[in-house]
Amino acid sequence: MNKLRIGLPKGSLQQSTFEIFNKAGIKIYCDKHSYRPSSNDNELEITLVRAQEIPKYVEQGIFDCGITGYDWILETNSKVKQICELIYSKSGYTPVRWVLAVPSQSKIKSVKELKNKIVATELVNVARKYFNSHNIKCKIQFSWGATEVKVPELADAIIELTETGASLRANNLVIIDEVLVSTTRFIANFKSIKDNWKREKIDNLVILIKGALTAENMVGLKMNIEEKKIMSIIKILPALKKPTISKLSLPGWAALEVILEENKVREIIPKLKKLGAQGIIEYPLNKVIL
């Protein structure tokens, strides 16, 4: 049997990645000590490693493909094919940021004031390019984690990953600049994508995963409506496409079904009710294939 070797992120992205695969129809079975989970897709050979390591393993052909962050592709300078961007992170469905931060009581207010200072970060190579672009010479110190506690005793500033800024605020840090915006990427080995079977398998995976991500912010609505009121209903529906309309056995009535953004439903349902819609049903979606 053909196998596609895929590296998935162990750690902060693991749970959200598993959830997306599950919605895509690929159920991953893994206990907390396992690094080689199984799935209901026998053509996948899954290995869990840190997102930081996946780009190099894909470049070297150890994995045919993998999911990692754009930040780690840049940091490792890996030569991989970026198949697509997947907008999700450990806490939600937005990009993450690497920011330059200092203690709130620090006299340092801009990157220019870090000349000859110490900056701690896990993203050393990206940080070096950032400071070179500002023509600032400083000592970049690799941080093995808990970077927020390095200042002010062990470093003058840090470059750290943030999604909500909560950890920075909790450690009394303020952001003075944005270094990099990063999103999750599906990447592949250049040799692997020349293999017809592997390329088709990768393309199919991407269709399902992107469909699952699109569905995260969408819901379906069903309702019954008098035919004479259909146009009034359509005018207030921000549909993905035109709604599906089918006749009911009751003369003069039709069933209407539509897909729309979940955050608009709370405003639309009362309006639908006032326009005469009945039997309104909201339901979640697993995949939306655009």
Describe the structure.
The chain has 290 residues and is α/β, with parallel strands linked by helices. The chain has three domains: 4-92 and 184-215, D-Maltodextrin-Binding Protein, domain 2, CATH 3.40.190; 96-181, Periplasmic binding protein-like II (D-Maltodextrin-Binding Protein, domain 2), CATH 3.40.190; 218-284, Alpha-Beta Plaits (2-Layer Sandwich). Helix content is 26%, strand content 33%. The protein has eight helices and 16 strands. It has a five-stranded mixed sheet with strand order 4-1-5-12-6. The protein has a five-stranded mixed sheet with strand order 9-8-10-7-11. A hairpin with an 8-residue loop joins β2 (28-29) and β3 (38-39). The longest helix has 20 residues, at 196-215. The two termini are 31 Å apart. The mean pLDDT is 93.
CATH architecture of the largest domain: 3-Layer(aba) Sandwich
Query: Largest beta sheet: what is the strand line-up?
Result: 4-1-5-12-6
| Sheet/helix structural class | alpha/beta
Question: What average pLDDT do the residues reach?
Answer: 93
Number of helices: 8
Number of strands: 16
The ordered string of helix (H) and strand (E) elements is: EHEEEHEHEEEHEEHEEHEHEEHE
The low-pLDDT segments are none
Separation of the first and last Cα atoms? 31 Å
Query: What's the helical proportion of residues?
Result: 25-40%
CATH class of the largest domain: Alpha Beta
